[in-house]
Amino acid sequence: MELLDLLHQGHERTIGSYLLDTDDGLALFDCGPATTVDALKSGLAEHGLRLADVRHLLLSHIHLDHAGAAGVLVREHPALQVHVSEVGAPHLVDPERLERSARRLYGDTFDTLWGELAAVPAANVNVVGDNVLGLQCWPSPGHASHHVCYLDRDGTLYAGDAAGVRVLPGRYVMPPTPPPEIDVELWQQTIEELERRDPERLALIHFGVADDPRRHLAELRLALYDWADFVRGGASEDEFVAYVRAELRDGGERTEDYDLAIPLWQAYRGLKRWADLSAAA
Prior knowledge:
- The protein has 281 residues and is an alpha/beta fold.
- It is 40% helix and 17% strand.
- The chain has eleven helices and twelve strands.
- A six-stranded mixed β-sheet has the order 1-2-3-4-5-6.
- A hairpin with a 4-residue loop joins strand 9 (148-151) and strand 10 (156-160).
């Protein structure tokens, strides 16, 4: 397993992709957005590989920082097989609704951040089951309803966003909570399932390999409860951002590293939407 830094917007340790061996050749776990395709190819080249040497793309979910480049990659490498949840699959084949939703959130910054969102031909899309190319696979909702995780035989959990954000070698664990699908209760159940699977390490897209999964997941659970209670209790966006940044500073972390991986205004708005929906229910 190799971590490729996709250098999103020129920043290190913001978005990654993992190169791994499977029962059917090389695969990438998540691929980043179209704006990082050149960095992805450069990362492969550092290992003596071309895009055409990769047979499979395993997706955790279809958010643009994880899967936005899928259609562009398949257009260039038509044999590439893309694996995704049943819920996410239609949005790869027809990404119009996904793009419309993302453009509402990101506005004029969409094209700079993410670039082209190309369709993936249906023939290249494979809906995941319990076993994908020798890796265990299961639903892991909370961050997104269509999220899945993969566990390799060597104990590596390819976690997507289900195990949170932690910019290694830092220790602070942050739940990425952008709108529109955050579900705190489901996410807590997912954390329990990740713990039950007892991985030896967590391969995080944002960013790095965590070798202390038990501590990491415990910290994620606490942070998710803490943030949810703070927002549900009436915290404003400014109060929330100030609170999290103070925690990061107190922990000796670089606040800008985390703010690039999950902008705190997005984290607040996802939790605020969840809190409002929960109150209405």
